[in-house]
Amino acid sequence: MNNPPPITPLEFDESDFPKAEKLAAALGYEQTAYTSTSALWGLFCLPENPEYSKGPTRHGCIIKTWEFGLMFVQTEDDLER
Q: What angle do CA 5, 69, 27 make, to 5 degrees?
């Protein structure tokens, strides 16, 4: 199996926040938190309590990359929660 090409993560600038928040809302996330100090730099999308939520029940993150711009990613840990 071929490995995918690496991506270059970038920190958000002020113009990225409205776009990322709009993407998070379109994906059904109401709670978000930005961080540039973790392994992933980006707008973390936090699910509501699954018992009460009609939206997503797994974590994810909107990151900015040089190659693709803003994109939503989930880690293996996110998928196991």
A: 105
Burial of 26 (0-12, 13-18, 19+ CB in 10 A): exposed
Rg (CA), the chain: 13
Q: Encode pLDDT of 4-59 as tens digits.
A: 778 899 999 999 999 999 999 999 888 899 988 778 889 999 887 666 556 566 78
Identity of residue 14: E
3-state secondary structure of 57: coil
State the pTM of this model: 0.80
3-state secondary structure of 25: helix
Tabulate helix, strand, coil % of the chain (nearest 5).
20, 30, 50
| Alpha-carbon 63 to chain mean position | 6
φ and ψ at residue 18, rounded to 5 degrees: -60, -40
Residue 27 to residue 23: CA distance in whole angstroms: 6
